[in-house]
Design brief:
- The complex is a heterotrimer of chains A (about 375), B (about 280) and C (about 300).
- Chain A is about 25% helix and about 35% strand.
- By secondary structure, chain A is α+β, with helices and mostly antiparallel strands.
- In chain A, the strands form four sheets. In chain A, strands 6-7-8-3-9-10 form a six-stranded mixed sheet, with helices on both faces.
- In chain A, strand 17 and strand 18 form a beta hairpin.
- In chain A, helix 2 crosses helix 3 (about 110-120), helix 2 packs parallel to helix 4 (about 135-150) and helix 3 crosses helix 4 (about 135-150).
- Chain B has about 280 residues and is mainly α.
- The radius of gyration of chain B is 23 Å and the shape is globular.
- Chain B starts with a helix and ends in a 5-residue tail after the last helix.
- Chain C has helices spanning about 15-25, 25-55, 70-75, 80-110, 115-125, 125-130, 130-140, 150-155, 170-195, 200-210, 215-240, 245-250, 260-270, 275-305.
- Chain C is flat and about 70 Å long.
- Classes of the chains: A alpha+beta (about 375), B mainly alpha (about 280), C mainly alpha (about 300).
- Chains in contact: A-B, A-C, B-C.
- The interface between A and B is medium-sized, with 27 and 18 residues.
Chain lengths: ~375, ~280, ~300
């Protein structure tokens, strides 16, 4: 169902929670939305307000046009999976899944049928008689998923459900959550601080920081067209290379960005927006993937020395020193240059990012995108 | 930890010596409770004799100390039950909700551990007395009066101990149940209570010990109808001839339940005695 | 989906307002009842005592003239009050230090042994589980001049029978020793629990670096145990300050008031001499002193740990 947050405020004075500053958000029916941000950004507080576990200080919350702001959690027709809790320790797996059904006084036969059906859906139908001591962390989190699904909620809320699992299990369960979302067609709201998790899961990513929404967009949008320096820096690993710089506009209309020790030319398509911004202070950025090793010098090519090489598998992450600045560069493992060697870097103008040094907003997005 | 042999032997020697110093009066005294009257006061003490229960029979029936036993049970169990009914929800409240002044309130609760009983006992006596004179409402020499007074030390202790148990549980446990269709009370009842049940039992038993051993407030506030076992024990020493065998029979009746409980409660004992200050 | 009336957007029905209100004040729902009872059984008596201490009230009299601070002045002038204050301080100093050394020592030693540790610990904590009155009565018997075990033992060593509890020179010491016997387990339990939570890494690295056991104790164990030690000292001080039960049954303050504690003196003032107001004044003074001591020790404590 469609979830709408309107002018939602949670004051940090009123409780020991992270503040949320007047956020507005719409999550469409059947969407898998991911709230992404560092710890303390307000993403969990937002989720808990949707669940009814925190009362907002002002603002309203709607699910399918229904104002649920002043309803108890139990009446909101949502389900929630938690990070540090998965199973009621005094019940076995079966009773855990049946627990939400007892609340609505379903008859025993119906409960039994529903529990078995849902258990099959998350692959724990073999474990129904097990107690909490006999299930692993991953299995316990599947029980939590089953318990969330069993009442057919209108919205699934997930608060970092995978954070306490080991890496392999996390990837596996991530895929299953994606599949569950496709099978049920229900609205999912997923909270995580892991940007990789957000990218792989989300239809829509809501990047948050310090209680504010920084950007709302598809995984591609937040990755390729970050609205501000925070999003650019937070999304993507290894993170974007960012440097302070200033603009220089030539008579001819060519635009350069002056960085500590060297200068790079911006592509012509930026001309229109930046022509009047000579000597403007900016934050310049480029992703490690957009820097290439070249053999012959040319435009936007700078020499450097490789300091360190980290193997990522099929590719290598090199740290290259250019005029006292360290750049992360991702190259094919076969092209990698050994540490200590000199190399020539080419910065692709098409993949450069520019942000206003003061407001940190992107200078490259058109006005419409900025308003998003 | 690797400990040199010499150090270990020395440690054993000192600890065993301390244990002996603890055990001698306790064991020798308790033996007296089983001695026939003629050897109560023999010196050197008689170590081997045919044990008898006549002292217990004498104190409980002839001297009617079963009444004191009954009073002790009523007051101890009653005050623990009241303390739990009031204290467990309060402990949950302190564990889960932060609100303005919550920290100060909790510190105030710790400070109640420091209040001398005379500060409470004296005004209680006067209050009960004046209340009775003014309204005829008698709390003096009633079980309820003592049960109420005992809340001064039991209630803060229950709150502090139980708070520790609640803090250890993830809040998500009851929150999960709340999202799944239960009210907070329903979630507490069906999910949290079954988990903290052992903690409640431990808290109850430890508080029982404190109430059971209490002497001062009972001395001030109890009368003929409510006199407790520790007070009965006191009467055996002020009699013209000290009745050692009878005295130790009463002592043993007071000690036995506590020692049995202690064996089960070793872990919780520290928590209770330190009043949760060590958290 | 059927829209139900109570949940229309913007609706401010009564049930919603009630829900909002209960959410905001939900903590009082849990804490309130206990707090009310505590106010009734702790705060009210203290207020009552303070009030009574400003008047001249006895249990029998019906006229209750206001006398201001006169009760406090009389109390502070009273030789018996000063004597019992001195005795109480004597108890505090010797009982606290004695029980602390014994309990701390036992806690250190018991970590060096493994076999029989549980049973030894159980035996060592027996005294604290006993009712103080039972402990007092038991030691009365131990110290009995005619049939007590102590005198029998002294007799074996060729020392004639002593009336240890009846002599002014020894009675106070005896009572203190019994108090130590009963309460050293408190220190023992607290310190041992504290030591069990110490991290292992500093010890392992110190040992690898060849630091001596004494230095490990001085430089690692003691500083890390500081908050625990303070708690033990605080609780023992407060308990020693209000000693009543043991003294009451062993000597009842005698001989010649040499063992009279503050609690005992105030009890007697109120219930034997029927001077309610004066006893109330004394108990308020006592509360203030204990409050001051705990406040000071708490300040030390809060430097180390965050409580709550």
């Amino acid at each position: 169902m469609k979830v709408v947050l309107k002018d939602l405020v949670k004051d940090f004075k009123s409780a020991d929670t992270v503040a949320v500053n007047r956020i507005n958000l719409q999550i469409d029916r059947g969407e898998l939305a991911v709230l992404l941000g560092p710890s303390g950004c307000g993403k969990t507080t937002t989720l808990r307000m949707i669940a009814g576990l925190e009362q907002p200080d002002s603002g309203r919350i709607y699910i399918a046009e229904r104002d649920i702001t002043d309803l108890a959690p139990k009446d909101r027709r949502v389900a929630m999976v938690f990070q540090n809790f998965s199973m009621y320790p005094t019940m076995n797996v079966y009773d855990n899944i049946a627990f939400p059904l007892h609340a609505i006084k379903m008859d025993r036969k119906e409960i039994d049928r529903t529990v078995r059906e849902v258990a099959r859906l998350v692959n724990i139908d073999q474990l129904l008689e097990r107690s909490v001591r006999q299930v692993s962390g991953g299995e316990a989190q599947r029980v939590a998923l089953a318990r969330a699904m069993v009442r057919r909620p209108e919205v699934f809320l997930m608060d970092e459900p995978l954070s306490n699992l080991d890496a392999k299990l996390r990837v596996q369960l991530r895929t299953e959550i994606k599949r569950l979302h496709q099978d049920t067609g229900t609205t999912f709201i997923f909270v995580t601080h892991d940007q990789e998790e957000a990218m792989t899961l989300g239809d829509k990513i809501i990047v948050m920081n310090r209680g504010d929404i920084q950007q709302v967009g598809t995984p591609h949008e937040v990755f390729f067209t970050p609205r501000n320096a925070f999003v650019a820096n937070f999304v993507g690993t290894p993170s974007m290379n960012m440097l302070p710089g200033s603009l220089r506009v030539e008579e001819s209309g060519r635009i350069f960005v002056g960085l500590p020790g060297f200068e790079l030319e911006l592509p012509r398509r930026f001309e229109a927006g930046l022509r009047r911004m000579s000597s403007h202070h900016v934050i310049w950025g480029i992703r490690p993937e957009a820097i290439r090793l070249v053999s012959a010098p040319g435009g936007n090519c700078v020499p450097g020395v490789v300091e360190l090489v980290e193997a990522l598998g099929s590719r290598d992450l090199m740290f290259v020193r250019v005029h006292d600045q360290l750049f992360g560069v991702i190259v094919d493992a076969l092209d990698s240059v050994a540490a200590g060697q000199a190399c020539l870097l080419h910065f692709d103008g098409a993949h450069m990012h520019l942000f206003d040094a003061e407001s940190e907003l992107s200078l490259l997005l058109d006005e419409k995108a900025k308003g998003a | 930890m690797v400990v040199p042999v010499r150090e270990r032997v020395l440690s054993y020697a000192i600890l065993i010596a301390m244990a002996v110093l603890v055990l001698i009066p306790v064991v020798a005294g308790s033996l007296t409770a089983f001695k026939p009257q003629i050897i109560w006061i023999s010196s050197p003490p008689v170590w081997f004799f045919e044990p008898t229960l006549e002292n217990f029979e004498f104190v409980l029936i002839t001297r009617q100390n079963w009444l004191h036993l009954r009073n002790s049970l009523i007051i101890s169990i009653g005050s623990v039950v009241i303390a739990l009914i009031l204290g467990v929800p309060a402990a949950y409240g302190f564990a889960r909700f932060r609100f303005r002044g919550s920290k100060g309130l909790m510190q105030w609760l710790i400070s109640l551990r420091m209040i001398p009983p005379i500060v409470v006992g004296l005004p209680f006596y006067a209050m009960f007395l004046f209340l009775e004179r003014a309204t005829g409402l008698g709390l003096r020499d009633t079980h309820f009066g003592l049960i109420l007074t005992y809340q001064t030390f039991l209630l803060p202790l229950v709150i502090w101990m139980m708070r520790g148990y609640f803090v250890e549980l993830p809040a998500a446990m009851e929150e999960s149940a709340m999202v799944e269709g239960y009210t907070r009370i329903g979630a507490l009842w069906r999910v949290v209570l079954p988990v903290v049940w052992p903690g409640i039992v431990a808290t109850a038993l430890l508080n029982f010990i404190f109430a059971w051993n209490e002497f001062f407030l009972a001395l001030i506030l109890a009368g003929n109808n409510t006199s407790t076992l520790p007070m009965a024990a006191g009467t055996y020493i002020v009699r013209a001839r000290v009745e050692w065998g009878n005295l130790f029979a009463v002592n043993l009746i007071i000690m036995m339940p506590v020692i049995v409980l202690t064996i089960f409660l070793r872990q919780q004992l520290v928590k209770g005695l330190t009043f949760g200050i060590l958290e | 989906m059927k829209p139900d009336a109570a949940t229309q957007p913007g609706g401010q029905s009564l049930s919603r307002r009630v829900y909002r209100l209960t959410q905001r004040h939900r903590h009082w729902f849990f804490i309130g009842p206990a707090l009310l009872i505590l106010l009734a059984v702790v705060i009210y008596p203290i207020v009552f005592s303070t009030g009574v201490s400003l008047f001249r009230v006895t249990f029998a009299s019906t006229s209750r003239p206001f006398v201001g601070l006169q009760n406090f002045e009389r109390m502070l002038d009273n030789d018996d009050f000063l004597q019992s204050t001195f005795n109480t301080l004597y108890y505090v100093v010797f009982s606290v230090s004695g029980s602390f050394m014994l309990g701390f020592g036992a806690a250190l030693l018991i970590r060096r042994i493994s076999r029989g540790r549980d049973i030894l610990r159980l035996i060592l904590i027996i005294p604290i589980t006993m009712a103080p009155i039972v402990v007092g009565l038991m030691w009365n018997w131990m110290l009995d001049p005619l049939f007590g075990l102590i005198n029998w033992f002294l007799g074996l060593l060729g020392i004639p029978g002593q009336t240890l509890l009846a002599q002014a020179s020894t009675a106070r010491l005896m009572v203190v020793l019994v108090d130590i016997w009963q309460w050293y387990p408190l220190v023992f339990l607290i310190i041992e629990a504290g030591m069990a939570t110490l991290p292992r890494a500093p010890y392992e690295s110190a040992r690898l670096e060849g630091v001596s056991s004494w230095m490990i104790f001085r430089r690692i164990t003691l500083p890390m145990l500081r908050p625990v030690i303070l708690v033990a000292l605080l609780l023992r001080t407060v308990d020693a300050f209000r000693t009543f039960d043991i003294v009451r049954v062993m000597t009842d303050g005698g001989p010649a008031l040499t063992t009279e504690t503050l609690s005992l003196y105030l009890y007697r003032t109120a219930f034997t001499f029927n001077k309610l107001s004066r006893a109330a004044a004394g108990s308020i003074l006592m509360l203030l002193v204990i409050g001051l001591i705990s406040a000071m020790m708490f300040r030390f404590l809060y430097k180390d740990i965050e409580v709550g």
